[in-house]
Amino acid sequence: MSSQTLFDPLNWAASLLMTMNGIFGIVCNGIIVHSFATSPLERTSFNLICAYRAVLNCVILSWGFIGTFVPLTIFGDTLFPPVYHLIVITCVNSLYVGLQYCGFLVAINRFCAMYFPIMYSTLFSLKLTIVFTFAIFCYRISRIVVELLQSIPKKCFSVYSSVDLNWSPYLNPECREKYANVVDATAILLVVLILLNIATFVKIYLFYKSTELGSRDIKEKMKRNKIMFTQTILQDLTYLIDMLFTFRLSGLFTSRVWTFISGSFIWESVHSFDGLIMIMFNERLTFLKRSFFSSTANPSFAIQMTKTVPSRSYPAPID
Fold first, then answer.
1. Which end of the chain is more exposed for a tag (fewer CB within 10 A), N or C?
2. Is the pTM of this model over 0.85?
3. Which tens digits make up the pLDDT trace of 249-270?
4. What sign does the CA torsion over 15, 21, 80, 178 have?
């Protein structure tokens, strides 16, 4: 326990912000998980991926931030041994990558729904989506085990600093190899995601434009799909912003306030706002969606369209 951190106003302010942000994120993501678990109508392929994302967000926020970083910020770096720092940081970073994989899975889900409607129900049935998400989880767990087995013998302990108010890898160049090109790889992945989502949105736009529905129906359906497109873009861009702050912009200033914002607070906010974004665009939670988008389309449009447009030309619903 460090008396320096106990009486440091910045440490207490950072702890309070991380706690409030973490609780907010856990509540938002918890609502998504509860909605999926309690409502049979919510149990679609797309909502399953969202629920999986929400669970990972809750683990990162509760264990990584509230359970580890907040106590370390108040009581000092020595509250937990270095190996525990390593275990927590390795786990939450691996789950973070798992969330990026989920984003890619969502993009493929929507892309297949629009371009391969006949195959969609086969490729993205609920059972097969469970297999996909479980495979992602198993792979990330295996990566955690491998990284820990490689790092612990070398004493490559990534640690959280109560002075800098963020985590950092060990200074040994041999230990920093696993973080090389992380930003570039993430940027490439997000570019692919954005291209997939743009292709999906173009298909949606061209499809509705070619139908013989009334102009009012077309307008309302376009608004709904623009909102869906916005959801995906927002979720994808938040991860790129976080990686840019962590690995590029964090070096612009050396003040403790900046290292906290760029290294910890923005990262935590990604997981909190991911839950908020999913709530805003969740079909069951339309009361929130209407608060942000007063002209949001009726959730029953997907059902109405199946009655109006021949099934042969209609893209699969984006589940």
1. N
2. no
3. 888 888 999 999 999 999 999 9
4. negative
